[in-house]
Design goal:
Its EC number is 4.1.3.3, 4.2.1.41, 4.3.3.7. The chain is built from twelve helices and seven strands. By secondary structure, the protein is an alpha/beta fold. A seven-stranded parallel sheet has the order 2-1-7-6-5-4-3.
């Protein structure tokens, strides 16, 4: 897809934390800059992998402002601003717009389960009207986590009712047929479909999708960049194989602490293991297993990071 605002590889960025569990913008900004220098076209900050829903409203604003103050381009970031309520969602979206972000990622209102498409349409209509434009809105389809999927009829209804407001979707359903159906139905109108799984990057690009927004890009973005640049051929195929293998390695243990472990070992920075409850650090056995899995995938050492040191 040409002219996609976030076309390419977007990491669902980990949120660094200090020992007291407060956000650590210095460490996070350094990681974000490394990602942009090693295969990422953009950054999905404050999403699921970034533990956004473990942070309060003011903390989320401070994290975004802290990254920008430390030189991470606002235009490269797609912050997650969807919450379980209307007013906070609008507030965070307006804040992102004021900081210079070009787009935001919106979870559905996820606390009440099994809402009707009419109810979801009414919610997003209210969000769109209150935001009033000036920033692209992307839907976040992650039914395993939110328990509230986006149906194709709902997306079609929103696109027709609010031309230009809903720019695309991150589909983390893991259902490639669903992603392809979105591309087939809406890509011709400029609707950007991003895979939430690395294993589908090469396929979704070939089908007319815009790219990916993925957790494992915290460590495998170098190979994602190759796939996006080359698309086809032996080099792209080999890079896609690394993406698929690292995705499977990342999900072989609890995802977020597992990725923190990979970055901690790759940088020698134990601070990356700090995580907010209810998430927990990996057990020693899990830590060894995920490190071995990333090594078997051919992804270690991570390009551009200091040689791995022994884990603490």
């Amino acid at each position: 897809m040409k002219d996609a605002l976030f076309g390419g590889v977007n990491a669902a960025v980990l949120t660094a934390m200090k020992p007291d569990l407060s956000p650590d913008p210095e460490r996070m900004a350094a990681h974000a800059k490394w990602l942009l220098a090693h295969g990422c076209n953009g950054l999905g900050v404050l999403g699921t992998t970034g533990e956004a829903n473990s942070f309060g409203l003011q903390e989320r604003k401070a994290i975004l402002e802290g990254l920008i103050a430390r030189g991470v381009p606002a235009a490269a970031m797609m912050p997650g601003t969807g919450t379980a309520n209307l007013t906070d969602t609008v507030d965070l979206t307006l804040h992102a717009r004021a900081q210079g972000c070009r787009g935001v990622l919106l979870l559905p209102p996820f606390y009440y389960k099994n809402p009707s498409d009419d109810g979801l349409f009414a919610y997003f209509a209210e969000v769109i009207n209150r935001v009033g434009g000036g920033i692209a809105l992307y839907l976040y389809n992650f039914p395993q986590q939110s328990a509230v999927p986006f149906s194709l009829p709902l997306i079609e209804r929103l696109l027709k009712a609010f031309p230009g407001a809903i720019k695309g979707v991150k589909d983390s359903s893991g259902d490639y047929a669903n992603m392809k159906a979105m591309v087939d139905a809406f890509a011709a109108e400029g609707f950007e479909v991003y895979s939430g799984s690395d294993e589908y990057l090469q396929r979704i690009l070939a089908e007319g999708g815009a790219g990916c927004i993925t957790a494992a890009s915290n460590g495998n973005s170098h190979w994602g960049g190759i796939v996006y640049a080359r698309r086809t051929g032996p080099e792209a195929d080999a890079a896609q194989a690394v993406l698929t293998a690292t995705r499977r390695a990342a999900t072989s243990v609890p995802l977020i602490p597992g990725l923190r472990e990979i970055i901690a070992r790759s940088t020698g920075d134990d601070g990356w293991r700090t995580i907010r409850p209810p998430h927990l650090k990996l057990t020693p056995a899990q830590a060894e297993a995920v490190w071995a899995a990333w090594g078997a995938a051919g992804a270690l050492p991570l390009p551009g990071l200091a040689p791995a040191r022994a884990a603490a």
